[in-house]
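Worked problem 6 (solution included).
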Amino acid sequence: MPVREYLFMALVAAAVTFLLVPLVRRFAIRIGAMPEVRERDVHTTPTPRLGGLAMYFGLVAGLLVAGNLNRTGYVLAQEQTTLALIVAGGLITLTGFLDDWWGMDPFIKLGGQIAAAGVMVFFDMRLTSIPLPDSWGGAYVLDYNLSTVLTILIVVVAINAVNFVDGLDGLAAGIVGIAAAATWMYSIFLDQAIEQNRINTTAAITAILLGMCLGFLPHNFHPAKIFMGDTGAMLLGLVLAGSLITVTPLDPFSFDGINKFGTLVPLLLPVAVLVLPLTDLITAVVRRTSHGMSPFAPDRGHLHHRLLDIGHSQRLTVLIMYAWTVLFAFGLVTMSVFGVPLLLFPIVILLALGVLVMMALPRLRGRGGAHAAARGKSPSDDDDGPPTGPMPVIAPSDEVTQQVRRTPTAQDRSAVQVFPGGS
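Solution. The predicted structure is:
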């Protein structure tokens, strides 16, 4: 069955990613890709980065395996998807690696992102048309220049959206994994309705992407042993953008029996699966530019920072943002599959926003919030996990205390105090 092929390529990507993470972690420590904790960081101990290297090899393994499967291999052979993702993914991974290791000027990093998107266009992995209802004039076919610009724009926005949301243990990998699962589900149902087939390029890409995320999460969920860094965040954004580009040209009129909703799903799907990263990206740009800062200047005003400041623990904050992504992404896909009235879409959005607000209320925060603060703990550390900050000071024994409190000798009084005024 076709689903077995998707499951197999996802397992291959997950296994390769999972097994390579410990090796990548040792490599990151050896070359010093483990920077000191910054003021805006949530973690309290230096943690190695470069987890995206393991993800990239998981991507390559998944694509190569998919290309040799009976049905999926035939579909991928009709296009240059495998080569496009391997080359573009390698370029964006190299860009992220250099940034995580040495640091990179934001505009140089932006150039690397544009170059990676350009590679995808070069291999003809680009947006070719915009689906619209018949009453709006039907599908709008893009010329090559406009197609190139829009494809690069979509890829760069997706890369930076995922990169912006990567601020807590397991957050980016979980959100992208949920988005990949929702996109996979939509592409399967859409292709089945149109061609009585469940094998398509988008489903193959998202299955591999989901495997990459699942293979990395055990090492990255709080308390994280390794971070994906820009190496992984930008790679996830690029692959997710690739899946959204390939799903858009499909003809969705099979779901247009009731209203325009089914036709508009390819346009709404990227927004739905990236609603949190896009919201974080837009608000960050507005916030920083309004204060006279560069849009690339780091700060501590992201959505996850706000949830932490309310009093939620790291794990609860991540789970809340997972829930938001599930509501938006799977809500939209489910409505498209069952052909519900278009009016229900804004209702679902309002419901999702209501759930978000309720979950973010201070009075609903869990053990990691107000209760932890009352016990003198940081709300960013969970009760159910090992400490992520410095080890607590060990209280001195009675013998040591008596030695400290003994009457100072003449030799002690003649010594120069290293810390004047200290007790």
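Discussion: The chain has a mean pLDDT of 76.
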